[in-house]
Amino acid sequence: xxxxxxxxxxxxxxxxxxxxxxxxxxxxxxxxxxxxxxxxxxxxxxxxxxxxxxxxxxxxxxxxxxxxxxxxxxxxxxxxxxxxxxxxxxxxxxxxxxxxxxxxxxxxxxxxxxxxxxxxxxxxxxxxxxxxxxxxxxxxxxxxxxxxxxxxxxxxxxxxxxxxxxxxxxxxxxxxxxxxxxxxxxxxxxxxxxxxxxxxxxxxxxxxxxxxxxxxxxxxxxxxxxxxxxxxxxxxxxxxxxxxxxxxxxxxxxxxxxxxxxxxxxxxxxxxxxxxxxxxxxxxxxxxxxxxxxxxxxxxxxxxxxxxxxxxxxxxxxxxxxxxxxxxxxxxxxxxxxxxxxxxxxxx
Length: 348
Hints:
23% of the residues lie in helices and 26% in strands. By secondary structure, it is α+β, with helices and mostly antiparallel strands. The protein folds into two domains: 58 residues, no CATH class; 266 residues, no CATH class. The strands form four sheets. A seven-stranded antiparallel β-sheet has the order 2-3-15-14-16-11-12, with helices on one face. The chain is globular and about 70 Å long.
């Protein structure tokens, strides 16, 4: 009589086989062009995690991928005459559901509206500011020594809503916002200058029109610039969209963008990211797609990553990729929404 043979496989053998399969799959995935184009630009746009690109790939591979991912910004100068600040009341007829969403105000709030964005791979918020005169730049009181959270900058300057602005030195991966890059203009005065800026000023003129320029700060002030930070890239200029090759070299990440429509309405866009299972983040093309839905005419990228924070009524409103337990990381400056004309606005 023959004995039945039973094959016994111990747990260690199973684990080893599974690990081998995972490694093989990982090697296949990491060598696909799609993964390289996602991983490398995303790592290279961080301040303290660039090593993640070089951990998986050689310097030649990193350089090659980055050379294939770049942007071409519109070269024409911004035309401020295109912006005609007009009647931003609700309308009887709308050209799209997005226009209706934008103009349909929240009950009892004539100053701003917050629109929740929920896409397949990212989540975020779009703040609609109906009167551009309500937008101003808030700057840390200890500029050069320490930054402040967007919450604090709002509280100190009467801000109802705020988002982070320009970038700053971040040598240890968790900079305190003390040393901003480039120039800062506040109330028509050039209050800060430091190396490392993009060479592009983003701000608003005395007549509340968004002004994007590569002129030096003093020349921009002569043109009427009232408040500005130095950052970028510009995403839309005079209605013309920046051409993004690949992902532009900016990867997929949390984003902060400021924009203006032809009728003067200002848009603050915050995209949440680096939160697996909740929101991965957005590419520059993703951001431009959102802006075009709401007919942004001029738009510029602000500091992103862990700096992308939004405050509403003195409280952190979005989910930043880091620093939530501290109320959001400290930054150098923020774009805030005030209520200069004492319009109707919720008390809470």
